[in-house]
Amino acid sequence: MTSTLPEATTVDDVLTPVGERLAVTASRLFYARGIRAVGVELIAEEAGTTKKTIYDRFGSKDALVVVYLRRRAADWQAVVVAHLDEHPAGTGAERVLAVFDALETWLARQWRGCAFVNAYAEVAGTDHPAMPVVRAEKLWMRELFTAVLVQEGFDDADRLGSQLHLLYEGAIVTLTAGSQGDALAHARAAAARLLAG
Amino acid sequence: MTSTLPEATTVDDVLTPVGERLAVTASRLFYARGIRAVGVELIAEEAGTTKKTIYDRFGSKDALVVVYLRRRAADWQAVVVAHLDEHPAGTGAERVLAVFDALETWLARQWRGCAFVNAYAEVAGTDHPAMPVVRAEKLWMRELFTAVLVQEGFDDADRLGSQLHLLYEGAIVTLTAGSQGDALAHARAAAARLLAG
DNA sequence: AGATAACCATACCGGTCGGTATACTCACAG
DNA sequence: CTGTGAGTATACCGACCGGTATGGTTATCT
To answer: How many cross-chain Cβ pairs, A to B, lie less than 8 Å apart?
Structure first.
């Protein structure tokens, strides 16, 4: 199979040392407390710098939010690809289910759900520059499932990929907002059944 | 089968006329723009009253948020039950899938996803009184699926109910944050396959 | 040597936030 | 007749918001 995985989100900008510290701090705070709940002054303080540097490096809070989401996407996608690489191509359903293993690793200490869904909750309906980043991450996940299914020789990869993506998103929501601890096990079981055709 | 559907969320408080107008207005604004994005002054203005009355009736913004979510849960649950009532008990998979019909009706003009997931995004990690309301709504949906499955005589209703719930939550996320227009069709197809197991 | 980029410190801007205070009108029930 | 609860109107509070202005110190590169 010549199908390749979807192109991962890249973090093109090389930041200055303080800029890097700001991006890391902002990511931590935005995810832990929400975007509107975190002021630029707090980010500057916790990064050991001042608002001035934030605006010198990023120009606006909105732009910093975009940096946060793009980095988050890149990090998560790297985890997924790493988990896929642990399973040789051609191992079929087992390799597809590795995406859920990646999710388990990723969510082990993330208690505030999907950063992109959370960002959507705060900016949907506006022209905030984060909106396309959110959409792109969801599209990437769907295309990832589809691409792996193609590689593993499954029929109807588009349809099946969309269905697995639903289980993936549902698992995050019920595990976090729903506090259902065994959500991932249910998702894996349902995915295995769908893959068994 | 003697299994009954889970008890629906009730809106116990009978409000004064202006209080009712405030609750309706707050619900519309909180859902459309998010909780933190909407100030109490704006709610008062659009309801044709003043902040004073908000605090006389509800005591705090947080309490008004709880009213918003409880009413939203009650409204949605009524829609689901109405759709279930259109299908006579004993029609098996068809009746289970009616929940997805209800969702289609409900989401037809709702462009900002699940109100409870959105609220979670803004308040998770705090002691905000909305948190238990969010959890309760997710639990209700899972128990609804399970109860209908029991009524329709499916084996393993707990497990299957959790799996269908994942598809339900995933459909909302991918349809809204993911802009995937056919998400509900995929969810219904996947649900049908799991039910055919 | 001079320029430039990176950074720090501090003060300031107009605006909005949730919440409170005061004082008034009106309908209705004892 | 006299409360009492519901509602209106407006002013105010301290705190915080995103963003800007000014001025200064380093280190590096040409």
So the answer is: 171
